[in-house]
Design a protein that fits this description.
Shape: elongated
Distance between the termini: 70 Å
Bound molecules: adenine
Low-confidence stretches: none
CATH topology of the largest domain: Alpha/beta knot
CATH class of the largest domain: Alpha Beta
Oligomer: single chain
Radius of gyration: 23 Å
Structural class: alpha/beta
Strand order of the largest sheet: 2-1-6-5-7
CATH architecture of the largest domain: 3-Layer(aba) Sandwich
Strand content: 15-25%
Number of helices: 10
Largest sheet: 5 strands, parallel
Number of strands: 9
C-alpha cells in the first residue's frame, strides 16, 4: 500500500526464473550485478536462487552418490532435485505451464529461437547439473527441456544457466535501454550484425566508412544490410540455408558477388 497517496501499487514481474544450484552464493552474486540487477530493479525479472542441498535429509546433506554399475565420478541424486523443484512449483497455477530446464552438455544447442521460446513463458525453472551428471530419472520424469550452450564440457551448469538467463532477460521489453537493441542483435533477424563504429572518425589512420558519417539514413540502412549479408556469408553460411531473401537482399547479393569478382 502506498500510504502517502493511499492507493495500492500492484507490482507485476514480467518473468520469474527459479534457479536450482549447489552454489547459491555464486548465483546471488551474479544476479545482483550488471543486466540482472537492472532487470531486478525495474521489477521486470525475478531471479530466485535455491540451494539443492537444502532439500537433503541426512546429517551430511548429501547430494551425490556413486553410479550403479561402477564408473568414474559421482552422480547427483534424484531426491533433493525432485523435492527442490516440487517445492518451488507448489504455488504454480493448475494450468500454468512452467518449463523445467536442465543445463547439460547433452542437451539441445541453445539458439536465439530457443531463447525466444523460453522468454515467452511467465516462469522458468533451471536446474544446474554437477559432478559427472544427474540420475537419469531426473531427465526422464522431471525436466521438460535439456539445454547445452555448446559442444564443450564445463564443470557445472551454473555458467550455462547464467548465459541462458542473460539471453532471456535482454529479450524482456524494458530490460535493455532501448528495445531496438535486442531486435538488431546478431541472430535476431537470422543474420549476423553489421560492423559498428563510434568516435573518433579516424583512429590511428583507420577511417570510419564514409557512408556512416553522411547522415543519409537510406544509404546507411542499405550499407548495414549489405555488410550483414556479407559477414554472414563469410562467417556463418549455415545461417543462410533456408533464409528468405527480400528483393532488395537479392540485389545486394549481386553487388557483393560483383565486388568479389573484381
Ligand atoms: N554443463 C556442463 N557443460 C555444459 C554445457 N556445455 N552446456 C550446458 N550445461 C553444461
Amino acid at each position: 500500500m502506498n500510504h502517502e497517496k493511499n492507493e495500492c501499487v500492484i507490482i507485476t514481474i514480467d518473468m520469474r526464473i527459479d534457479l536450482m544450484t549447489l552454489f547459491p552464493d555464486l548465483a546471488e552474486n551474479v544476479f545482483n550485478d550488471a543486466l540482472f540487477a537492472i532487470a531486478r530493479s525495474k521489477d521486470l525479472m525475478d531471479y530466485r536462487v535455491h540451494n539443492i542441498r537444502d532439500y537433503t535429509h541426512d546429517k551430511h546433506r548429501t547430494v551425490d552418490d556413486y553410479p550403479f554399475g561402477g564408473g568414474a565420478g559421482m552422480l547427483m541424486k534424484p531426491e533433493p532435485i525432485f523435492e527442490a523443484v516440487e517445492d518451488v512449483l507448489s504455488d504454480k497455477g493448475p494450468d500454468e505451464e512452467v518449463p523445467i530446464v536442465l543445463m547439460t552438455p547433452q542437451g539441445e544447442k541453445l539458439t536465439h529461437k530457443l531463447v525466444q521460446e523460453f522468454a515467452s513463458y511467465k516462469r522458468l525453472v533451471i536446474i544446474c547439473g554437477h559432478y559427472e551428471g544427474v540420475d537419469e530419472r531426473v531427465r526422464e520424469h522431471l525436466v521438460t527441456h535439456e539445454v547445452s550452450i555448446g559442444d564443450y564440457v564445463l564443470s557445472g551448469g551454473e555458467l550455462p544457466a547464467f548465459v541462458l538467463c542473460d539471453a532471456i532477460s535482454r529479450l524482456i521489453p524494458g530490460v535493455l535501454g532501448s528495445d531496438e537493441s535486442a531486435q538488431t542483435d546478431s541472430y535476431a533477424d537470422g543474420l549476423l550484425e553489421y560492423p559498428q563504429y563510434t568516435r573518433p572518425p579516424v583512429y590511428r589512420g583507420w577511417e570510419v566508412p564514409e557512408v556512416l558519417l553522411s547522415g543519409h539514413h537510406g544509404n546507411v540502412d542499405k550499407w548495414r544490410r549489405k555488410e550483414s549479408l556479407k559477414r554472414t556469408m563469410e562467417r556463418r553460411p549455415d545461417l543462410l540455408e533456408g533464409f528468405e531473401y527480400s528483393k532488395a537482399d537479392l540485389k545486394l547479393l549481386k553487388e557483393i558477388q560483383n565486388e568479389g569478382d573484381k
